[in-house]
Each structure stands twice: as structure tokens, then as C-alpha cells.
Amino acid sequence: MRNIWLGAIPALVMLGASPAHAAELTVNWDAPEDFTDVKPVNEGRKHFRERTLQTLETYLSELAATLPPQQKLSLTVTDLDLAGEVWPSSFVGLGNSSADVRLVKRLYIPKMTFRYTLVDETGALVKQADVRLKDMGFMDGVSSRIKEEPLGYEKHMIKEWFTEEFEPQLSAKL
Questions:
Q1: Whole-number pLDDT of residue 89
Q2: Which residues lie closer than 8 Å to 159 by C-beta, 6 or more apart?
Q3: Are the C-beta atoms of 9 and 55 separated by less than 8 Å?
Q4: What per-residue confidence (pLDDT) applies to 91?
Q5: What is the pLDDT of residues 47-60, one digit of tens each?
Q6: Which residues, other chains included, contact 171 with Cβ-Cβ below 8 Å and sequence gap of 6+?
Q7: Cα dihedral angle (58, 63, 66, 69), rounded to 10 degrees?
Q8: CA-wise closest residue to 58 among 167, 155, 173, 163
Q9: What predicted TM-score, i.e. pTM, was given to this entire model?
């Protein structure tokens, strides 16, 4: 089992955050080359996968920055399945081009599997869980901003989970 580690990103994304006053995030991507679907359309697999994982990690760090100061959130992602499915363009009626296209339909829902731990400044466990995210209604009522943003469906799914999962911690920060 191979891990890819894109770096522990301190969650300092929010303006005015400093290391002493921000939650910290560590994300480990466990065997990302075996993830269900992190397939590119018009670029190399490795580059697309690294760019995709970095984008999601940056987004997770933005969310982690909203946690109480000095907490540490660690995630180990074991699977990722992006919204949509990659098909040859000829298969979906777009001519004989050799390019692939990502077809986003209700059938191809985003999914993510990971485990996490959240600890406080003393290292005491605040929360932990094994998580299987899936958003079966990912196309329902979404704004055009979500549709057009890179990884918008996945980010929306993660934010919904994060807000629900960490609501007590977020409320305590206020």
C-alpha cells in the first residue's frame, strides 16, 4: 500500500490566521493510483491526480481553518470517485476525436472514503470516525457556481459533511 503525502498544510488560509490560532490539517492519500475515479480528460493521469488531490487538500485546509484554534485534524483518504464518468468522445456522440470527456449525470455520483481524527492542543481525542461520503442528490438544487467550479460537486459534498460533523466545534469557536 503506497501513500502519497502532499504535505501537512497548516490551515492558515483565512485572513489574519496565525499558526498559534489556527487548526492544523494533515491529509494522507492512501494509494491514490488505485482510487475508483480520478481520471483525466485531456492531460496525463499523474498530473491530473496530483492537481486534483492538491485542490481538495487546499479546500479541506480552508474548512479546517474554521475549527477552534490549536486543534489538529488528520485525514487518511482511502478512495475517491469524482462526479461523472470519463468516456471516449465518440461514445457520447461527439465525433471521432481521440479525446475523452467527463460525462456528468445523476448516475455518476461523487464518493469519498476516509478516516479522520480530531485532537485538541493537549493531544486528547476530540472526535474520530470512518467516513463513507456519497452525494446521491449532487445535481439537485446546485448553483451554477458549483457546477462550473473545478471539483465543485466534490467540494460541496465535503463541505456538507464537514459542517454537519463538526457543528459543535464550530459553534464553540464563536
A1: 73
A2: 63
A3: no
A4: 67
A5: 999 999 999 999 99
A6: none
A7: -60
A8: 155
A9: 0.81
Digit-coded pLDDT (tens) for 11-40: 333 333 444 556 899 999 999 999 999 998
Cα separation of the two ends of the chain: 41
Query: In the structure, what pLDDT confidence band is assigned to residue 168 with cuts at 50, 70 and 90?
Result: confident
Per-residue cell: 147: 457546477
- Residue 101's φ and ψ, nearest 5 degrees, are -135, 150
- How do residues 71-96 score in pLDDT, each as one tens digit? 999 999 999 999 999 888 766 666 66
In the numeric block, which cell numbers belong to residue 27? 491529509
SS3 content of the chain, % helix, strand, coil (to 5): 30, 30, 40
Burial 158-173, CB ≥16 within 10 A → b, else e? beebbeeebeebeeee
Given a contact cutoff of 8 angstroms between Cβ atoms, the answer to whether 65 and 22 are in contact is: yes
Q: Do 67 and 127 form a contact (C-beta atoms < 8 A)?
A: no
- CA 44, CA 63: separation in Å to the nearest integer? 29
H/E/C letters for each residue in 7-32?
CCEECCCCCCCCHHHCCEEEEEEECH
Question: How many other CB atoms are found less than 10 A from the CB of residue 147?
Answer: 13
